[in-house]
Each structure stands twice: as structure tokens, then as C-alpha cells.
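Pilot study result, target chain (130 residues):
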Amino acid sequence: MNAKMAVVNSVSAKLFAMKPKTVYLALCVLGMLLPYWQFVPWAVQHGLNMPLFVHELFANRIGAFFGMDVLVSAVVLVSFVRREGARLRIKNTWLPVLAVLTVGVSLGLPLFLYLREVRLEQIGMGAGPS
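Predicted structure:
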């Protein structure tokens, strides 16, 4: 096993040992910081020029691939949040929807999973290591 795989395995083992809520909160932070790390400098340079944003996003096929993937993922996530939120009576399901609209799936999904985990603990169905 090479050094990179050893690091990946070590990080993976540590994440698996953590409570799911802790992992989801950490992923919320990454899910907000990493996309904005790229977006904020672009917005500073161009302002909130949405036509330019869309043009640059779909400027080539690989960008369009990622753009379409994120759009479909966002629709799926909002649908899942609505259905699963209603099924489990999760509070504040508007937060992940707002997160999807303001940052993206990278924040909306772990935020919803965090809220879902909180609710599962409340009803005695919490998952993962304690």
C-alpha cells in the first residue's frame, strides 16, 4: 500500500469512528468553503453577472456536464428533503433548500443529513457509533 492510500484509509477510519452528526457538520463547512473559495474571487472580478456566470459554466462540454449534474442533483435533493422531511417530521427543512439555492448541493445535502440525524436521535433511531 502506498503512502497516499494509507492517508486515505486513516482519514476514512477516523470519519467512520465519528458520530454521523459530527461528520455532517464538518462536511457542511467544507461544502460551503470549497465552492465559495472558487466563486468569491470570480464574483469580486465580475460582480454577480449571471449571464456571464451561465456562459462560463456552459462554455465547454465538461463544464456543461458538471453544471447539468449539479442542477439535477439539486432538484433531486430538494425533492428528497421535502419527502423525507415530511415523513420524519424534520424541523427547519427550509434551511437545506436555502443552502442549495445560495451555495449548492455541497452544503444542502450534509445540512439535511445533519437535521435528519438529529431527528432520528429524537425518535430513538439514531445511527452510527456513539
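One observation from the pilot: Residues 19-122 form one domain. A full batch analysis is planned for the follow-on phase.
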